[in-house]
């Protein structure tokens, strides 16, 4: 029987591609326009953007209405965007959208070109469709940025310990010190961070993304961008997140090797996908974004056997296009002995079930609800054993 | 371009469209999820693309009410294969099979994209009604693309009340329709109805679904907000219930007129001349007391707090308050009040709270300012504010006196504005 990815009786929704675009572009001095009737931008600013209240970054919704959509009248959007750009002077403009532009075959590339011609400001078309997760949207935005503003000829094969961090947004790392901890881990190991895409660095810095020796994809929101950069320039990439001492050591070693031989690596790729185990063994399941969940599961497995109660950890992540089939989720969670996941997943626990639930909030899932409980998990200093010590 | 215009520079246009918009962090106004959860023992199902689902799901999660909502995601396959009806049918059945408690009613919301997919949902609802005769299924809409002709909130109030079935009417029972908050101690209408022994029904106060269904037996529907008009019109046609719109404003004559009409329709004693004089006198005393407390302190107000912000600005100006600005995006009040205000206060600052230019305005105010409403508080960056949305159950002389009390309180005390205005659906506790 075909899996039902669509019906969610109990569980929440990961944030959508449009929020991923906005989050990726937030700090770069641009203006992001969501082509949509209404709602997408207030959802993003309320639930998915912890920087919104205290900054003045430019994110707007186009306010598409029925007649404009039916008539395919793009002049309304073009006029508004050109006028707003004239008032606000953004460094560049990003144009993305939700399901209605998708279904009426809105020409992102053509309209971006027209706006750019009228106002002389670079416009990046990012043809999201509102049907996929933030991973897809953020990745599309990063890739569009690199394609437009970064020069692949700047890449030179080097063993110099200079790297980029790709896929960094508050949706996966919040604003509680994770990014700083991530940087510190690499810097203390002697690496120079060329760019962190895209938190904490400026537009100008990011334009020199090709000046590194390799990319480190710390969330799957940077994966396609890394592949794109590889294709364009040959820059290799390593995928993984340093969570705790063991995972950090493994990842740092992999990065060194990649800088040395130019080959791509994913040191945590052998962590099993919990869905592939049938029946799922009574182990520990980590639910979350793919790179995070694989890396954390690896870190748990690196603990002494007593520290993980003799059990093995597995990863379980949503597909960026389809999400999670709730029945798979129920099956895995109710079979597991220990679940490490966002607190909103706890509703799936069978009442009175013996399993242990470790609350690990994720901004892209529960938004701002548990924001103050998100741990600083990135970096070698994170104590992975503390996760299971409360059992 | 500056972020505000002076009133004298603005031409009146009724309910103009906004276009490219900004969303401030102010989130107190209720959305359709909050309103839907008022129906007791019901379950909401949203059938939408991921980008639309995110907002409703997290609204519900923040209320701690995830057991009241399920979702069916629209996927690329549905668009390509045209099988959205099947997805809805299968999804709804699975939800009903897996929910621990069977709901009495199911509110199924479709979204903008369905208008473009030519989906025949009524056919599915018909099948579901046959298969689950003990559950009331009602079609609801989260389709902001239709906002010019069928805005989502008025449409939802209408659809919720379509759950009521025609029945024999009681002359001693009335409904208050379309309110986010119960009307009671600060409403002249409620006091008059209670004095006359009339049973007042309100979705807000219904303890269970059966009690809600009893609203069908009321003889009159009273509405305080324009967003309830569609529901009341529909109930008049379907259930034969009279509709009396009560103007939620500040003109004494209009209050007296509406109250007299309410009494006459119900055949109950109205408010006598002497009582009206007393009420007006007490209200004027409260206003004077408030004006003395505020002195020359300026006032700013916005459309999220009250239904008639222009009328309130005019009223306060007439009573000697120093009204400095109004945050309003579209004019839904009459041209008459707009013109009166323009003549009286041509220098009044009008801010578009959704306009793009306001995003980079320097929030704040030189010196103390009292804000009436969350948006004016946010943009003036003041902790001296009246924290209400949607009129907060205030109507008539009692309502004006209550508002004066809240203004004095705002002038004398501070509130943690940053925390309060970001709470979604202010005052909603989920039915």
SSE topology:
The complex is a heterodimer of chains A (391) and B (431).
Chain A: E1 7-8, H1 17-25, E2 31-35, H2 40-48, E3 58-61, H3 66-71, H4 75-88, E4 93-97, H5 99-103, H6 108-119, E5 123-125, H7 134-149, E6 162-166, H8 170-173, H9 178-188, E7 192-197, H10 203-206, E8 214-217, H11 223-233, E9 237-239, H12 244-261, E10 284-287, H13 290-301, E11 313-316, H14 326-335, E12 338-341, E13 356-359, H15 363-366, H16 385-388
Parallel strand pairs in A: 2-3, 2-4, 4-5, 6-7, 6-8, 8-9, 10-11, 10-12, 12-13
Chain B: E1 4-6, H1 32-36, E2 42-48, H2 50-62, E3 69-73, H3 76-81, H4 84-98, E4 105-111, H5 112-117, H6 121-131, E5 136-142, H7 152-161, E6 170-177, H8 188-195, E7 199-202, H9 209-213, E8 218-223, H10 229-239, E9 242-245, H11 252-266, H12 273-294, E10 298-302, H13 309-318, E11 322-327, H14 335-344, E12 349-351, E13 370-372, H15 374-380, E14 385-386, H16 396-412, H17 417-421
Parallel strand pairs in B: 2-3, 2-4, 4-5, 6-7, 6-8, 8-9, 10-11, 10-13, 11-12, 13-14
Antiparallel strand pairs in B: 1-12
Give a written overview of the molecule.
The complex is a heterodimer of chains A (391) and B (431). Chain A has a four-stranded parallel beta sheet with strand order 3-2-4-5, with helices on both faces. A four-stranded parallel beta sheet of chain A has the order 7-6-8-9, sandwiched between helices. Chain A contains 16 helices and 13 strands. Chain A has three domains: 115 residues, Nitrogenase molybdenum iron protein domain (Rossmann fold, 3-Layer(aba) Sandwich); 110 residues, Rossmann fold (3-Layer(aba) Sandwich); 115 residues, 3-Layer(aba) Sandwich (Rossmann fold), CATH 3.40.50. By secondary structure, chain A is α/β, with parallel strands linked by helices. Chain B has 431 residues and is an alpha/beta fold. Chain B has three domains: 148 residues, 3-Layer(aba) Sandwich (Rossmann fold); 116 residues, Nitrogenase molybdenum iron protein domain (Rossmann fold, 3-Layer(aba) Sandwich); 97 residues, 3-Layer(aba) Sandwich (Rossmann fold), CATH 3.40.50.1980. In chain B, the strands form three sheets. A six-stranded mixed beta sheet of chain B has the order 1-12-11-10-13-14, with helices on both faces. In chain B, helix 10 links the parallel strand 8 and strand 9. The longest helix of chain B is centred in the middle third of the chain and has 22 residues. The two termini of chain B are 44 Å apart. The interface between A and B is large, with 68 and 59 residues.
């Amino acid at each position: 029987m075909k899996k039902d990815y669509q019906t969610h009786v109990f569980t929440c929704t990961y944030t959508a591609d449009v929020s991923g675009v906005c989050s990726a572009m937030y700090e770069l001095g641009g203006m992001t326009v969501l082509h949509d009737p209404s709602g997408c931008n207030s959802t993003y600013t309320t639930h998915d953007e912890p920087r919104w209240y205290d900054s003045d970054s430019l994110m707007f919704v186009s306010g598409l209405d029925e007649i404009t959509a039916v008539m395919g009248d793009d002049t309304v959007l073009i006029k508004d965007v050109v006028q707003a750009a004239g008032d606000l002077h953004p460094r560049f403009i990003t144009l993305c959208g939700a399901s209605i532009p998708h279904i009426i075959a809105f020409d992102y590339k053509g309209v971006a070109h027209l706006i750019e011609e009228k106002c002389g400001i670079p416009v990046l078309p990012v043809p999201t469709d509102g049907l996929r997760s933030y991973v897809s949207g953020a990745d599309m935005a990063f890739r569009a940025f690199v394609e437009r503003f970064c020069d692949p000829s700047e890449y030179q094969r080097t063993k110099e310990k200079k790297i980029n961090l790709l896929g960094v947004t508050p949706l996966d790392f919040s604003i509680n010190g994770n990014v700083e901890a991530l940087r510190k881990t690499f810097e203390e190991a002697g690496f120079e961070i060329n760019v962190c895409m895209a938190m904490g660095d400026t537009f100008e810095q990011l334009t020199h993304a090709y000046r590194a020796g390799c990319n480190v994809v710390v969330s799957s929101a940077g994966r396609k961008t890394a592949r794109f950069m590889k294709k364009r320039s040959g820059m290799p990439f390593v995928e993984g997140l340093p969570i705790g001492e063991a995972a950090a050591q493994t990842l740092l070693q992999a990065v060194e090797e990649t800088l040395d031989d130019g080959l791509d690596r994913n040191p945590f790729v052998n962590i099993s996908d919990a869905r592939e185990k049938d029946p799922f063994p009574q182990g520990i399941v980590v639910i979350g974004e793919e790179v995070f969940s694989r890396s954390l599961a690896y870190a748990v497995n690196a603990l002494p056997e007593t520290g993980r109660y003799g059990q093995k950890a597995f990863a379980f992540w949503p597909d960026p296009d389809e999400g999670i089939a709730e029945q798979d989720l129920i099956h895995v969670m109710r079979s597991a002995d220990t679940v490490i996941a966002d607190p909103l997943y706890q509703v799936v626990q069978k009442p009175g079930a013996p399993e242990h639930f470790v609350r690990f909030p994720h901004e892209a899932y529960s938004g701002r609800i548990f924001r103050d409980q998100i741990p600083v998990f990135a970096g070698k200093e994170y104590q992975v054993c503390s996760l299971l010590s409360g059992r | 371009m500056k972020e505000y215009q002076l009133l004298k520079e603005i031409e009146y246009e009724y309910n103009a469209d906004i276009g490219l918009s900004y969303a401030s962090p102010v989130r107190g106004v209720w959305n359709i999820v909050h309103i839907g959860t008022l129906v007791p023992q019901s379950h909401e199902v949203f059938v939408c693309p991921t980008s639309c689902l995110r907002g409703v799901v997290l609204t519900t999660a923040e209320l701690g009410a995830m057991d009241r909502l399920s979702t069916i995601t629209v996927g690329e396959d549905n668009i390509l294969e045209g099988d959205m009806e099947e997805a809805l049918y299968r999804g709804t059945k699975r939800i009903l099979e897996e929910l621990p408690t069977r709901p009495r009613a199911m509110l199924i919301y479709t979204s903008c994209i369905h208008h473009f997919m030519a989906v025949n949902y009524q056919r599915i609802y018909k099948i579901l009604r046959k298969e689950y005769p003990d559950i009331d299924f009602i079609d609801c809409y989260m389709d902001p693309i239709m906002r010019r002709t069928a805005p989502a909130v008025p449409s939802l109030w209408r659809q919720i009340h379509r759950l009521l079935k025609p029945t024999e009417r009681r002359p001693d029972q009335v409904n208050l329709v379309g309110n986010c908050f119960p009307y009671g101690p600060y409403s002249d209408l409620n006091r008059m109805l209670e004095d006359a022994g009339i049973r007042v029904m309100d979705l807000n106060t219904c303890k269970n679904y059966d009690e809600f269904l009893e609203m069908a037996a009321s003889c009159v529907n009273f509405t305080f907000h324009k967003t309830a008009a569609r529901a009341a019109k529909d109930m008049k046609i379907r259930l034969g219930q009279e509709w009396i719109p009560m103007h939620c404003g500040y003109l004494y004559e209009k209050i007296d007129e509406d109250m007299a009409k309410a009494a006459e329709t119900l055949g109950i004693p109205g408010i006598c001349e002497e009582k009206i004089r007393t009420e007006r006198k007490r209200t004027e005393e409260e206003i004077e007391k408030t004006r003395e407390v505020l002195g020359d302190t300026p006032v700013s107000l916005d459309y999220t707090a009250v239904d008639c912000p222009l009328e309130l600005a005019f009223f306060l100006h007439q009573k000697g308050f120093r009204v400095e600005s109004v945050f309003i995006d579209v004019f839904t009040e009459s041209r008459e009040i707009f013109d009166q205000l323009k003549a009286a206060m041509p220098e009044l600052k009008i801010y578009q709270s959704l306009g793009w230019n306001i995003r980079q305005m320097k929030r704040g105010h030189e010196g103390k300012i009292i804000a009436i409403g969350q948006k004016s508080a946010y943009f003036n960056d003041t902790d001296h504010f009246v924290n209400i949305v949607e009129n907060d159950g205030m109507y008539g002389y009692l309502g004006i006196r209550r508002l004066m009390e809240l203004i004095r309180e705002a002038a004398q005390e501070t509130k943690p504005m940053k925390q309060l205005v970001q709470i979604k659906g202010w005052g909603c506790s989920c039915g």
